[in-house]
Design brief:
Helix content is about 70%, strand content about 5%. With about 350 residues, the protein is mainly alpha-helical. Its main location: membrane.
């Protein structure tokens, strides 16, 4: 009987050992290599944006402070969150680094990812106000509002990430070797809505308003005509090929009529396209993860670990896409990157 129990104990230990130290297949090695490359690329691109903003004096203003805040949160994701998450995956989603490091990792995970999401929201709001209210949204006002949005972003992210440390659920289980975001249902609702669903509603509303404003401007441009009143001292220059220019000296009124797009319209169109792509990628990257995070604790559903990993890393990849999307639609960044690398040579 003793031999049987010893053999049973040995088999259980061997089974646990095999679960933790299972042999790596070619597919898993390739997957971990690609994930490691994603970590390095995410860190590199966001650091490049930060260095460019610090070195170029013209970038020391709005909206580049919002971009810098987003880059800081994404750099922190790449430096503090993704490497430990990769170790977690290598260990078969078993946590063997202790309670303290688990709590630190989860806190930074929630903090940085939430800040990254809200920074995208802040950039979308800034673009919306600059497009629809460019007369009232002066540089001074824009600077104040952007600083407030950055402060609120990091404050809300801190509240959501630090709540479990004060007893709102548990992140670490020594018995099951688990380290995960608190599964307390009340915290799950609070954190998912505060970190994703609320900013999602904001960015979708913002882009809908930007789209409506763009359609209104295009429609008004096609139908609206300006007929100035002729007065004394009026100088007119007109030709059949050139746009009409009317200048009234007495009332200092200048009007232009032209079929070509103005510089502001082209800039607004690029900004609207950039915001649309930024929001679209943000939604595609994060919505699978936050749907499973909300549903799993509430309905006690079982999601296969492989899908949890896929959804988590898809969300992390948003930190890689953010700097690529923003800089791709900004010629100033492209020129600054070229100057930066040419100086290094």
């Amino acid at each position: 009987m003793s031999d049987v129990s010893q053999n049973s104990s040995f088999n259980n230990q061997s089974s646990d050992y095999g679960n933790v130290y299972r042999p790596q297949t070619v597919f898993s090695v390739l997957t971990f290599t690609l994930l490691a490359m994603l970590v390095v690329a995410t860190f590199f691109w966001n650091m490049l944006v930060l260095v460019t903003i610090l070195r170029v004096r013209t970038f020391h203003r709005v909206p580049h402070n919002l971009v810098a805040s987003m880059a800081i949160s994404d750099v922190m994701v790449a430096a503090l969150v993704m490497p430990l998450s990769l170790v977690h995956e290598l260990n078969g989603r078993r946590w063997k680094l202790g309670r303290v490091l688990c709590q630190v990792w989860i806190s930074f995970d929630v903090l940085c990812c939430t800040a990254s999401i809200w920074n995208v929201t802040a950039i979308a709001l800034d673009r919306y106000w600059s497009i629809t209210r460019h007369l009232e949204y002066t540089l001074k006002t824009r600077k104040k509002i952007s600083n407030v949005m950055i402060g609120l972003t990091w404050l809300l992210s801190s509240v959501i990430s630090l709540s479990p440390l004060f007893g709102w659920g548990e992140t670490y289980s020594e018995e099951n070797m688990e380290c995960q975001v608190s599964q307390e249902p009340s915290y799950t609702i609070f954190s998912t809505f505060g970190a994703f669903y609320l900013p999602l509603c904001v960015v979708l509303f913002v882009y809908w308003k930007i789209y409506k404003a763009a359609k209104f401007r295009i429609g008004s441009k096609r139908t609206n005509t300006i007929t100035p009143v002729a007065e004394a001292g009026e100088v007119k220059e007109a030709s059949r090929q050139q746009p009409q220019m009317v200048f009234t000296v007495r009332h200092a009124t200048v009007t232009f009529q032209t079929d070509s797009e103005t510089w502001r319209e082209q800039k607004e169109k690029r900004a609207a396209l950039m915001v649309g792509i930024l929001i679209g990628v943000f939604v595609l990257c994060w919505i699978p993860f936050f749907l499973t995070e909300l549903i799993t604790p509430l309905c006690s559903c079982h999601i296969p670990p492989i899908w949890k990993s896929v959804f988590l890393w898809l969300g992390y990849s948003n930190s890689f896409f953010n700097p690529l999307i923003y800089t791709a639609f900004n010629k100033n960044y492209n020129n600054a990157f070229r100057n930066l690398f040419s100086r290094q040579r």
